[in-house]
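Re: that chain you flagged

S.,

Sorry for the slow reply, it's been a week of failed gels. I finally had a moment to sit down with the sequence you sent. For the record, here it is as I used it:
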Amino acid sequence: MVTPQVLISFNLCWVFCLVFANCTRLTTKHNNDSDFVVVGNINDDKDGCQYLLESFAHTSANFTFCAISHARPITLCQQCKDPYLLTVGVHDDILKLEDEAGELCKEKLLNLDRLQVVEGGFSYIKNLWDRAECDLCYDMGSDNKPKELNSRTKEILRLYNLTQECIDQHQNTTSLYHNDPPVCSECKQFYLDLNSKYNELKDSTPFCMDITDLMNSTRYEWSVTIKCCLDRQKPELLFLLATSIISVLPVVLYIMACSFSGKKKQNIVLRKRVSIPYPNEDEAIHKIDDAMTPIIEDINSANEDITEGDSQPSVSRAVERDQ
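Prediction finished late last night. Pasting the structure tokens below so you have them in one place:
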């Protein structure tokens, strides 16, 4: 017996399926330049401008989803070209087409939109495409829109596929982070061809972000992951050895200088005390008194002459006595 709860659940599920089917019904509109996917049924829509608005919402959402899905590794230019062209085509239609009343869709959807939602969304998509420089990897058509990958981009992709196939074939998965000589020797020429061709072509015209990121990841894998950049390891080893020797050399020279050079000894001259050549102290004192007596007499005579006012004869006598 079927319970009421089961019937209610079944009805709810059926209603949900109907709503989901109506919301995701897709129709393809054929335009002069390109095709784009829109939401809803064009036969049920009387307002062509509203139809374009819903189409722009759908195509811009597709491009945003594609760009985020291919952000790592970067393959936006290769994988998201079609959503980008659809978005540009719908935006061009909004600028050019009119509704049934003859009013431009641009006036209804852009000029009266104070928030500039449509233009803001299109500017984001256009700026993202331009920042990735995706047009550099394509041949441009007469309408200035990318058509297909140019020859230089195809050549880089071909050499990359050969290099990656060789690495996948010879790489030992058990030693991803150690030297793997079979990979380095077998795939060296493929890698050198890829690297030289990229350097040769980028000098004339840069590549789009897809190719730039592709080369950066390939070089990282070759030199860091599988450690095949042996020609760079030897110069680095010599540089490290030379730097170490130069750094240690001053210390060694200082130690040798301290070890083999003796300290200079300063000769200290000791002053000797003057000895008195007399046998006893009394005799020495007597000799000193005898030597000082004439000097004391001269001083006394000079004082007497000064006192009497006759200093000149006394000075003369003192000079004669000295002589």
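What I noticed first: The radius of gyration is 53 Å.

Talk soon,
D.
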